């Protein structure tokens, strides 16, 4: 009833009804219905109040699962994990496979390996014969950067369901291990497990990340010719990405023009990105014209293209257009887990309690890498300013701050794992290769596109991302 009033914008009446509800004994079914309704509406705080009331006789495992899963759907991943901890600490109700699956999904979204291992440890008495749990475990370790643990789990669980195979293929794809993804697909065929549309999306992504153009074309044809799976929008998008990354920008545009489905914003952004990489301002402008709901990153990409070709006047016009429309450049964010706590950084951040030590170490690393031959990629900076000013703009990107903190807090020789919300720029990419060699450390970074494993001055992406 309360949610009905909220839909009618009568929030004061809804809150009074909720207060009455919480003072009564509604029973488990009504409690669960209310929590589910509140979570669907994004009312996580109110749902949590209901949960606290229900910890007595009005809650069961479904109650807790609705909360954990609701937090995941509302992108409150840390709250989801906190709720699982509360379930274990403050109730006599044991988590079940749905509790674990939601918690693992939260870990995967955060890239939080520490908590992924914790959730996995709670499952010690659980039979891994459920495809949902098997898939979640293979998926979470891959998304948290431990692809070897993901591989080990994959070969240790039942693989009767296509979703488990898809998780492994997609995991290898995001780590840039195309040969491994293709090998798993061959094993899948040999074991007579029928692939689905997600399988082929994973294969096309793997080919795209490694520049396997002809293999990608073959899989795109195979899905319809052998398995009667008609390509969907996301498969065309993967092909546009594959062609664009391989430098076939014009062919990628021609594919968009010939597609039987209407291209979405993701496809046009992919074309815009490849236009920047291969400095094709004409196709970039066409892509921008088709981005009816362009975001800040789209304007930045176009401005980057003009800047990299020294077309300062055109770049200035894009910046002026952004100012007129009130569009600000989205700040990159990176985070690193230490001691079970996630530490977040923005470009030029000064909010962290240990920022003085972080900047001190970062400056030392910058100077040491320069002495070893690292040269900042100042072409990336949009402004027509001095080289010194450009370098300063590049020095404090979020992943550099996160890496400095990770090095500061970890022991020598240990791996550092970082997550980033947008694509890593080439300057940071080259600099981190230098840091990995300088310190003889393995550095693993997951950006919006894929995983990068830096070791001995090289990256697993082979500079193709």
TrEMBL record:
GO terms for biological process: RNA modification. GO terms for molecular function: RNA binding; zinc ion binding. Residues 373-465 form the DYW domain. PPR repeats lie at residues 60-95, 161-195. The keyword Repeat applies. It holds the Pfam family DYW_deaminase. Keywords: Repeat. The keyword Repeat applies. InterPro entries: DYW_dom, E_motif, PPR_At4g14850-like_plant, PPR_rpt, TPR-like_helical_dom_sf. Belongs to the PPR family. PCMP-H subfamily. PANTHER family: PENTATRICOPEPTIDE REPEAT-CONTAINING PROTEIN. This is DYW domain-containing protein. It comes from Brassica carinata.
